[in-house]
Amino acid sequence: MMAAITAAEQGANIQILERLPRVGKKLLATGNGHCNLSNLNSEMNHYHGNPDFIQLIFSQFDRNDTLELFENMGLSWIAESDFGRVFPRSMQASSVLDILRNAMAQRGITENCDATVQRIERTKHDFLIKLGGGDTLQADRVILAAGGRASPNMGSNGSGFTLAEQLGHSIRTPSPAIVQLIWDEPFSKSLKGLKIQASISLKSDGNELRSEIGEIHFMEDGLSGIPALQMARLVNESLEKEQIPVLHINLLPDLQSDDIHKQLMDRMDHFKNQPVQESLISLVHKRLIPVLLKEARIPCDTICSQLNESPVKSLMDALICWKIPVTGTRSWSSAQVTAGGIVTDEVYPSTLESKLVPGLYFAGEIMDVDGDCGGYNLQWAWSSGWVAGKSAADIS
Ligand SMILES: Cc1cc2nc3c(=O)[nH]c(=O)nc-3n(C[C@H](O)[C@H](O)[C@H](O)COP(=O)(O)OP(=O)(O)OC[C@H]3O[C@@H](n4cnc5c(N)ncnc54)[C@H](O)[C@@H]3O)c2cc1C
User: Fold this and answer.
1) Is CATH 3.50.50.60 correct for 2-176+336-393?
2) pLDDT digit string (tens) for 87-138?
3) 139 CA distance to ligand 1 centroid (A)?
4) pLDDT of 246-287, one tens digit each?
5) In 3D, which of 194, 179, 193, 287 has the Cα closest to residue 236?
6) Could you state, in order of their start, the residue ranges of all structural domains in the chain?
7) Is the CB of 42 under 6 A from ligand 1?
């Protein structure tokens, strides 16, 4: 939609081909229905892919340009003071879609829905676009903005990759990103639904891959919450290399280890004639206590005075470095984003035109670029859409 608006602004005659009955279905689901459309802290370290390529797109149309354009199209927006996430003031994702559709209508852009593109052929002079129903359309230029494979019920079912491959492009193997982590642990059911603040870090083959702090959500088979979702792409990368990724959870991230040790020793003394599980009440959520004691190999009914330095050390490890092997991530149907996609070496970063097929352009998640949670993926869609739309319409 952003590409279409930008190209139409340059005078191009645009038709959007959309396989679903309406455009922008995914947009309505973004940000839990609020649409986190950008982020005021749009630093490069929130993006994954070739940094030079990504930077060249943002140097042409960045977050400020995006917000200004949205304002000019009639969108009123607000940003959080802490995390910088940008939302429509109405907090309704539908506002963003309404504004985009209004801008498209004003520029004479046709929305051709229930139109599945099955094949794109480059002829000597133009493109032939073959649709599911048997129709064939002709176009001078094509912008392929079919998304990745995440949440296929919202339209992006990976068919864009097939279309690009048919035209000779290479795809870096797509994997689900921004998705829940899965583990196979006996405690899972007892913690289902628990939400706590923690810091987590993901390690693989002895190396720390990423660390995050924030609210984590225990599920019946793994972990959710923004810090966990952000780790998904790395989990899949590790498993692909046949390395087991291990999550290290610190349940007391605001305390130094010396303080924790002292607190535990003081508590063992205070509750000396009582079972050890009593001594942990209020330090961590009550549902975690039996799980952590099991992790530290301490029977719950052990009397505090019977614990010497060694089990207290194990308990401390369980509290600040609880290690859980991750066996995978949830599948495409739960994923918000696709890691991998069209290899960006095959695309000119100044125009987003294909290096292999003149007149073919790419925008959005279909390329091998993905961002963290927080509005970064939509910002990539807006910026790359603008560059592709402007270049595709440029007939000079
Ligand atoms: C639940 C959810 C919440 C999210 N929340 C946020 C958020 O708050 N902030 C954020 O930055 N990002 C968020 N994202 C990610 C963001 O929505 C995507 O990165 C972004 O929409 C990608 O834009 P796109 O235009 O490249 O692809 P898409 O939005 O996937 O659009 C591609 C379109 O192409 C159509 N299409 C695909 N194949 C064909 C075909 N063969 N023929 C015709 N049409 C086709 C699809 O139906 C679809 O409408 C979220 C994603 C999900 C799933």
Assistant:
1) yes
2) 999 999 999 999 999 999 999 999 999 999 999 999 999 999 999 989 999 9
3) 23
4) 999 999 999 999 999 999 999 999 999 999 999 999 999 999
5) 179
6) 2-176+336-393, 180-330
7) no
